[in-house]
Amino acid sequence: MNAPVGPLTESPVLSQPYLLFLGDTAEPGFAKTAFGLRDWAPDKCVGELRLTGATVSTGLTAMTPAEARAQGARAMVIGVANQGGVIPPAWRASLIEALEAGLDLIAGMHMRLADMPEVAAAAQRLGRRLFDVRVPPADIPIATGRKRSGKRLLTVGTDCALGKKYTALALAAAFTARGVDTDFRASGQTGIMIAGGGIPMDAVVSDFEAGAAEILSPDAPDDHWDIIEGQGSLAHPAYAAVSLGLLHGSQPDVFVVCHEPGRTVMLGTAGYSVASIEEIVELTIALGRRTNPAIRCGGFAFNTSALDPAEAEALMARESERLGLPVADPVRRGPAFDALVSSCLG
């Protein structure tokens, strides 16, 4: 039961750089894949393609697939993760246009590119490749609960799509800058596209969630840190299952709570209010102690993108005093973020 788990199947090498496809998206929270690639892999992004009706933009140059191919793009990425992970019929002509322009296709949706007959046929006819990133490996074991060597940090959230990936990436970079041996462990499609590997946790069958989290962060030297990208929220009425499996399997020594001040309703729900920071701390400790009795909160990461700098700084200072731990915006960085890093490292 407590034998070490085996290695994961290696992820395929994705075609790069990318044209980011935003479809007709009007909800910024659903375009986190495109924004994540723009912010954390800018050298891999050539431009964007939006359809009529889209109100969300990455700010990159608008391009047709042919123009992107001429600028060096080698694949078009569906930069949207909508509810249910569905590829609407209205998008499919653009996907085929990209194939005809010489681009491969990359998607992180629950609906697979390879399962759409017209897209699969076009790819085969044109000799193009289809990458479905949101496909977990086939060799995931059931969790053992075995305590692994090394140290782990997990980002958790009061809701979905508010900064867990950004926080994990920023903390991993900061740990590395301090000379700490660190790996970022991607658990979602965008993180996998950025890191080049990982496990799409929300595509794993529930019985194997914790097992997937165990092999995502394997045994490591005692001074090594795995910074694990969180998913969903323990308080979300739809997505709590993936959050709990990730928490139990990753056995974090430290967790950081991610929160967006001003958000009142949980993303994609009808009338469920966003959980309080205190509720998430309480839930995470109570449930996380099952596999790591020493779990602790290292602090809080706020997404203050809707606030001006002075307002954000004042709010985070007040909340830090109230909560008794560092509060920082991992995008704005600064002394507050340095304090968060120090707190996490202990």
UniProtKB/TrEMBL annotation:
Could you tell me which residue ranges the D-glutamate N-acetyltransferase-like C-terminal domain spans?
142-335
Per UniProt, residues of the D-glutamate N-acetyltransferase-like N-terminal domain are 58-136
Q: Which domain of life is it from?
A: Bacteria
InterPro entries associated with the record: DgcN-like, DgcN-like_C, DgcN-like_N, P-loop_NTPase
- Pfam families this protein is in? DUF1611 (PF07755), DUF1611_N (PF17396)
The protein's name: DUF1611 domain-containing protein
Q: Organism source for this protein?
A: Sphingomonas suaedae
